[in-house]
Amino acid sequence: MEFSSKLLENAVYEMSQLPGIGKRTALRLVLHLLKQPESQTAQLSTALTALREDIRFCTNCHNISDKELCEICSNPKRDRTMVCVVEDIRDVMAIENTGQFTGHYHVLGGKISPIEGIGPQDLSIAPLVSKVMSGEISELIFALSSTMEGDTTNFYIYKQLQGTPVKTSTIARGIPVGDELEYADEVTLGRSIINRIPFEGSFKMS
Questions:
Q1: Residues 73-95: pLDDT tens digits?
Q2: What are the φ/ψ torsions at residue 96 (nearest 5 degrees)?
Q3: Of 155 and 198, which is predicted with more confidence?
Q4: φ, ψ for residue 106 (rounded to 5)?
Q5: What does the alpha-carbon distance between residue 5 and residue 15 come to, in Å, rounded to a whole number?
Q6: Distances in whole angstroms, Cα of residue 20 to Cα of each of 25, 62, 109, 178, 185
Q7: Which residues, 6 or more positions from 19, have their beta carbon under 8 angstroms from its beta carbon?
Q8: C-alpha to C-alpha distance for 149 and 178, rounded to whole angstroms
Q9: Strands (DSSP E) along the chain, which ranges?
Q10: Please, how many CA atoms are within 13 Å of residue 203, restricted to the half-sphere of its CB?
Q11: 101-135 per-position pLDDT tens digit
Q12: Burial of 121 by CB count in 10 Å (0-12 exposed, 13-18 middle, 19+ buried)?
């Protein structure tokens, strides 16, 4: 792809680094921005800069937040003793949209994946185990996607908690095996939360 401007080329290159954005789509987006009022582009730039500089992570659940505690963790009406374990903020948003869960969350920041070089130490598993050990949690709900990596992560955490009185459950398999949680429709996901099953009953012990 030939460019008549180095500035245009640089902008297209940076835009094409985003997931799912190819060079042609990046060019279309950049040209669209050029047609907009300068103030709109400035607002976009300001929003992205503020995102990088000011974004925080909730000290309790590790969700993306503007403050030390996210709105969910700071809400006194939420049940602190029931914690739903998810991969990232997209899963929190998906479950919140169902309106069926009133507890807290714990965002791991990914899934165990040896192929990608992601081990337990790379995720926020240790803080979750510490929270359970402190006696704060009565039920832990595993809501990771039903993939090999998701099941491996669930089982690893489960093994770390053996011997504790915490109840462990997993969302019902209304979610197709291999699907990511964020793509499930709200009704199916909501029913999966309501009809969750004991985690030890979701796999065969060897």
A1: 999 999 999 999 999 999 999 99
A2: -60, -35
A3: 155
A4: -140, 115
A5: 15
A6: 9, 26, 21, 20, 22
A7: none
A8: 10
A9: 56-57, 64-65, 79-86, 103-107, 139-142, 167-170, 197-198
A10: 19
A11: 999 999 999 999 999 999 999 999 999 999 999 99
A12: exposed
Q: Which two tokens stand for residue 110?
A: 């990914």
Name the token pair of 84: 């739903």
Beta strands at 64-65 and 56-57: parallel, antiparallel or unpaired: antiparallel
Amino acid at 147: T
Domains in the chain with CATH codes: 6-54 (1.10.8.420), 72-201 (3.40.1360.10)
Structure tokens at 127: 């803080």
The answer to whether the beta carbons of residues 56 and 113 sit under 8 Å apart is no
| Residue 199, token pair as written in the block | 């985690």
Residue 137 has what DSSP assignment? -
| Beta carbons of 160 and 125 less than 8 angstroms apart | yes
What residues have CB less than 8 Å from 70, skipping those under 6 apart?
Answer: 58, 60, 61, 63, 64
